[in-house]
User: What shape does this take?
Amino acid sequence: MSFASYRDAVFTTPLDRVASFSFDEQVVACFPDMIRRSVPGYGQILGMLGIIAERHLRQGGHVYDLGCSLGAVGLALAGRLPPEAFTLTGVDLSPAMVERARTTLGEECPEHRIEILEGDIRQLDYRPAAMIVLNFTLQFLPPADRDAVIGKLFNALEPGGVLVLSEKIIAADEQENAWLVERYHDFKRANGYSDLEISQKRTALENVLVPDTLDTHRARLSRASFTRVSTWFQYLNFASMIAFKE
Assistant: This one.
């Protein structure tokens, strides 16, 4: 069963009260369009994940995609690597996301060994992994929980393994951060979002998506015992880092 993808119109209507953002069925139905028009560089990040895996993933290594949404990481890796090259576990807290990811991956790459679990990445019992991907997921966890999650992921990684961490970020300098936010809103306008949609979604995400600075991410990774970290991608206030377990 294939699922249709719809244009993101979640915040087109003026709302008396804007509810907190959640990955419900309405969001899932338009998620491919939403993330394409809302996350600068998302396609480039996905495209590079397969290349990173080719260089750093041992043959037959296990991959975790945490906060897997509709399974885009699995699709990206399956598009570059043969079925015997890796196994993958995707995890998401949204039942609607899990249902669609299972169907999509089953249809698009049935020969690859990919499983999708519904669950909380903070409570997961991790098996040894050669690569872990956190694509725009950590930012939705309470800040107080983030160190423990990164510590668990370091422990789950095999020596030589890599963690790819992609996040919306804030700049430490107030003026720089304001400029990045303004240009991000310009990016969204250029992709067809109205000022009303931008404003209402921003309100919906308050206290739901809480971004960190790149320095905060680096310090957290260092506390977890990652000794080598590189910011390999940044587009406005969105960035991706790779951390190596030596």
